[in-house]
Design goal:
12 helices, nine-stranded mixed β-sheet, globular, alpha/beta, six-stranded mixed β-sheet, 15 strands
């Protein structure tokens, strides 16, 4: 069935191109936005769309003389739905560019992008292999390995010796924990147990009790954005903070969207992340102020996928003078460099992955609010999994 759908998509795109005289002849450029707007990861889609909305508010809806039309679809956090919607966008709506969200959805959409030769901008997925699923995929989000590898090295150097890992039981969770474990154990630490929590409707309490029973000095955790508030509440309710167990992880665990409501029990939590709403650059201060004014809530790291994703699309279209040929756009995206609210950012021309700084942060209270305050910087971090493959 999938093969039939893919072939149909490719034929439809070819027919469209011949009827219009090629991609460059179009007056309107259509971008199909497939994101999780309902379902388990609604909070993720909310932030992506808020970032997209702000970018267009600031930069308009015309690029290289062409009108930009967004066609937004809700994949309900179900990959099969994401694939069906992407198929409809290609065949029925005749989109020129796609955007994708979480890892399962990105994996589902990848073969369609390849067959139709349509660029697909990954705005959420942090799984390393996502860009390898299609030569037409470019990542503007992050890879989990960028953060968790640095976290593993830093944790051992700063006193962690015995760790229990808690991860959501899906591909990003497995990858985050694997990279952390590799770095932490290579440095000399011990991961005594890895606990896998169901992604849907999680109850962290029994897993936290098992973690406490193992008597670690540190708990490493990966959970997707939107579940951090519940996790931290149950971490405190189970008394792990009072037991002297340090909480560490990638930026998701102290997600800026959830952080204001976590309570003082999370103070001192150290994470490795590529973005904080408290990042002290002029670019980010302006971004946070504009984002809050437009959307009414604080931006988190996921929002940058939407905001920077639109930047990459707009800049690529400028370079091609509005030509939406898939290969031309992908080549225009490779090597792009810009100053993001997250800091200096670029697209690796070899892997089509994001390259950005990773910061070690500690939760502190500033002006009466909880923030991730950065205190160490690792510059221009590439995806470590792909880097290791080259060696």
């Amino acid at each position: 069935m999938l093969r039939k759908l893919v072939v149909s998509a490719a034929l439809a795109v070819a027919a469209i191109a011949s009827m219009t005289g090629g991609a460059a002849a179009q007056d309107t450029i259509k971008i199909g936005v497939v994101q999780s707007l309902t379902g388990q990861l609604t909070a993720v889609g909310k932030q992506v769309m808020a970032g997209i909305k702000l970018y267009q508010e600031q930069h308009g809806t015309t690029v290289a003389g062409k009108k930009i039309e967004l066609i937004v679809k809700d994949d309900t956090t179900v990959p099969d739905v994401a694939r069906r919607l992407a198929q409809e966008l290609i065949v029925n709506d005749k989109v020129n560019i796609l955007t994708t969200g979480i890892t399962p959805a990105s994996f589902a959409i990848a073969p369609l992008a390849t067959q139709a030769k349509i660029p697909a901008v990954i705005m959420v997925s942090g799984t390393s292999s996502a860009t390898e699923r299609s030569p037409y995929m470019v990542r503007v989000s992050f890879t989990l390995g960028q953060q968790t590898g640095i976290m593993g090295d830093w944790a051992f150097k700063n006193g962690s010796k015995k760790v229990v890992a808690v991860q959501s039981d899906w591909a990003p969770g497995a990858e985050a924990t694997a990279v952390f474990t590799e770095h932490f154990t290579k440095a000399g630490g011990q991961v005594v147990e890895t606990l896998k929590v169901p992604l849907a409707n999680p109850d962290f309490s029994p897993f936290l009790q098992r973690a406490r029973d193992a008597s670690p000095d540190t708990l490493f955790v990966f959970i997707p954005a939107g579940q951090a508030g519940l996790f931290v509440k149950q971490f405190i309710d189970r008394g792990l903070d009072k037991a002297g167990i340090k909480l560490i992880g990638p930026g998701d665990v102290t997600d800026d969207d959830d952080l204001p409501n976590m309570g003082d029990g999370v103070l001192g939590t150290v994470t490795a992340g590529f973005y904080s709403a408290y990042h002290q650059s002029p670019t980010n201060k302006a971004y946070v102020a504009a984002f809050k004014k437009l959307n009414g809530f604080r931006p988190n790291f996921i929002s940058l996928g939407g905001y920077d994703g639109m930047h990459v699309i707009y800049e690529a279209l400028k370079k091609t003078s509005g030509n939406t040929d898939g290969d031309a756009l992908i080549n225009a995206m490779k090597g792009l460099k810009w100053e993001s609210p997250r800091g200096p950012t670029s697209i690796d021309p070899e892997t089509r992955d994001i390259v950005h700084n990773v910061y070690i942060r500690k939760v502190e209270k500033r002006d009466g609010e909880l923030y991730n305050v950065e205190f160490a910087t690792f510059d221009a971090v590439k995806d470590p999994i792909k880097a290791a493959k080259k060696q």
